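Reader question, answered in our methods column.
A reader sent in the components of a multi-part assembly and asked whether the whole thing could be modeled at once rather than chain by chain. We filled in our standard form and ran it. Here is what they sent:
COMPLEX SIZE: two components
ENTRIES:
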Amino acid sequence: MADAHYRFPPARAYRLNCCLRAIKSDPDYCARFVADPRAAMTEIGLDEAEQTALSSLDRGALATLGAHPYLVFMAELRLRIAREPATLEYF
Amino acid sequence: MLVGAFACAHTPQLLIRPETEDRELVLRVHRAFARVKSRLEALRPDAIAVIAGDHVEAFFLDAVPALAVYVGTECSGSFGPYRYRLPIDEALARAVLQEGLERGFDLLYTQEARLDYAFYVPLHFTMPAPPVPIVPLHVNVYLPPQPTPRRCYEWGSALGEILRARSERVVLMASGGMSHFPGTERYADPDFDYDRQLLERLRAGAGRELGRLTGEELDKTGNVELRTWITLLGAVGGARADVYCYEPSWHHGNAVVEWPV
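And here is the structure of the entire assembly that came back:
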């Protein structure tokens, strides 16, 4: 299923997916990313193309680089909540 | 013994209730969850075996199992402002693991893994009073390898045999579904027609058919999480589904279902 929505991430995207997962699941890393994205991405070893795509949350570019779509989805959500805590309003 | 079988949506918007959601729709799903809670209190289970998919929280690219059993004393996790910690029925979990291996299922087990909202959201709303321990059963859905629907059905059949032979009163609960496409261009375009047709088949007792679906069909219709339902259907076979609710939101087909056992 080469065109599946949720397919095997290529091994070359391992560090990129590690970074997305850290944003999603590691609150300390997420805070570091919000404070200084470049430093946080360099810490994990992302290359320039990956850093550019992730800095702008360019879904198309991230997908081309091998990012898992669910990780992109949740990393976006975590960053939005971290940057705008009022996003979630309870009823 | 197996005393009950349910499927519950777990979309986190049901829990955190952001302004993007239709309040009345969310509350209708909450009312369906309340019916499940009442049923659980009437069924008096000793444990709830929750079949759920991991959202790349418990397992990552260092090791990704298709099927796994959490054999520990307790499990924990968090989502947004919610922190949760749930006791596990360790003896029952170990029995499921060992009996599963005896039946030819090469299961992974873990004693330490973070449980994500797939486990927590349904239990937040349906855990009976007094609360009971759980047995977390992992069926992989998002990060390959995803087990085939046929394999899920077979594992569910074995699981049903294992639980029916036990002295404990056990409820099976499948978490997840129906159509949704998180992280893709189809997030706001779920396949609700597919869901409705599938629910009609389940109402007619055609659960066995789902073991013949393909992984490709599940992916195309936003139903990768139905692997958890298909596992449960392996245990309940041709029972006719009682659909408590089907509530399609702008991004998710929310269903709550019971099967007689």
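What stands out: Chain B is about 35% helix and 20% strand. The radius of gyration of chain B is 17 Å.
Send us your own complexes using the same form.
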